[in-house]
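User: Structure please.
Assistant: Input sequence and predicted structure:
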Amino acid sequence: MALEAIDAAAAGTVSLGGELQVRRLGFGAMRITGDGIWGAPADPDEARRVLRRAVDLGVNFIDTADAYGPEVSEALIADALHPYPGGLVIATKGGMTRSGPGGWERNGRPEHLREACEGSLRRLRVERIDLYQLHTVDPMVPIEESVGALAELSEEGKIAHVGLSNVDLAQLDRARSVVPIVSVQNRYSLEDRGADPVIDACERDGLAFIPWFPLAAGEVGGDAVARVAAEHEATPFQVALAWLLACSPAMLPIPGTASVAHLEENVAAAALRLTEDEVAELTGAA
């Protein structure tokens, strides 16, 4: 496929809260940070080029978090893209703190989430965050208290829509009893389908499902994937993304990368159409 023909619009759209329509192939901005998702990237200029190229290719949904860096990913997004083009949706998350490279600690206390949201507003240079997600559930804090803080921030006009990340069905239901939820971001890929019940609920109730780790850190493989990739003159990564898009209309994959070439490869998957038989074969083979 010629690079000028690559367009995320080929993936179709999904709704966030009935108000925001975003293309179903987004960009996850975790990998534009340093090793261990810690500190600045080795090449900040390349990170900015990746972000700008994503928008050039029609991506209008970028997912980040205050914990990525920490703070680095959000700052790079603003440096590269602000003032933001019309229609671009920036989603971020709060509820994780960092102790060092590879270190992740949960903090779902309302006072922390308020502080985290205020910091994200400053770094992203916006007055309201399009989609703010609880990064994870803190076992020391009832989820009702955590999302209650996000509900207050929404009432104050600092958050447009509330989402969740790393939750099960029971936690989703509890959160929805407090505030409208428009999306769930859980780990999911061809190799890891533990979130199937949550996807079913999202599809039934009109929520977007955002799979993180959608390419299993490059561990996509197997004879079925290789055969389908050869049939379509595609890469295994592109087949894995096309499979996700075919699984559910609620699906909003956000593959991340620090490379423009890899980004272009990922976005090209928006136009890859698998047959029903291929989807079934891949689903059964994984």
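The CA atoms of residues 243 and 280 lie 9 Å apart.
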